[in-house]
Design a protein that fits this description.
Distance between the termini: 124 Å
Shape: rod-shaped
Mean pLDDT: 79
Number of helices: 9
Low-confidence stretches: none
Largest sheet: none
Structural class: mainly alpha
Strand content: under 5%
Number of strands: 0
Number of domains: 3
Order of helices and strands: HHHHHHHHH
Helix content: 55-70%
Length: 209
């Protein structure tokens, strides 16, 4: 008695029969008769094909989710890097502006009104100034104030020990009208001058002496 050996079907043949079974245009019995295969074998190939399709789409969704997570992670890294760079830029600009005595009006000259990528508000934030600095127009000093400042400078040059009180009295006598001492104080502060006089605690011995 001859022993029947199992037939080994190529993958392309199995796929063809499984696709026909999935179409369900013919019954399993008809397909078994057409391809001379046992119906149980066709059902097995059909289950394998269906499971493979499910796994294929599931893996695709996993790959898409993984790609999205990687993209989000990369974007967060870029945001963090940009935040660090902006903070460094602000600190560096603050240091340079204080070191070189750069005021807000000089900083405003670095703004780009026609920049389409950065708004004026964002540029002001990066440079550490308020937006109102862009619109502020300085008021020119009037001739009377300039004259008073010139007189203060002359008095201070001749008498560097004169304070705001003494200068106010002297200017009131020279100009024949009352000069407010607080106004003189503001001008002296603006000019960066103060009376030369002994500071407190100068007579105390230093610890190194």
């Amino acid at each position: 008695m001859d022993i029947l050996k199992p037939r080994n079907h190529p993958p392309a043949f199995k796929a063809k029969v499984a696709i026909e079974a999935l179409k369900e245009q013919q019954t399993i019995s008809q397909l078994a008769s057409q391809y001379t295969i046992h119906p149980t074998q066709i059902n097995a190939w059909k289950r394998i094909a269906k499971q493979s399709l499910n796994d294929l789409f599931a893996d695709k969704r996993k790959r898409v989710n993984k790609d999205q997570q990687n993209l989000i992670k990369e974007l967060y890294q870029q945001i963090g890097q940009l935040t660090v760079e902006c903070d460094w830029l602000k600190k560096k600009w603050d240091y340079l502006s204080n070191e070189h005595h750069i005021n807000a009006r000089q900083i405003v000259s670095h703004l780009e009104k026609t920049n389409n990528q950065l708004s004026l508000l964002r540029q002001c934030e990066l440079l550490g100034i308020s937006r109102s600095s862009w619109y502020y127009q300085p008021i020119p000093v009037n001739s009377l104030t300039l004259d008073l400042m010139n007189r203060i400078d002359k008095l201070y040059t001749d008498y560097p020990f004169y304070g705001s009180r003494k200068i106010a009295v002297q200017l009131s006598l020279d100009l024949k009208y009352q000069i407010n001492r607080k106004r003189i104080q503001r001008m002296m502060k603006l000019m960066g001058i103060e009376a030369i006089y002994p500071k407190p605690n100068l007579s105390k011995a230093h610890s190194d002496n």
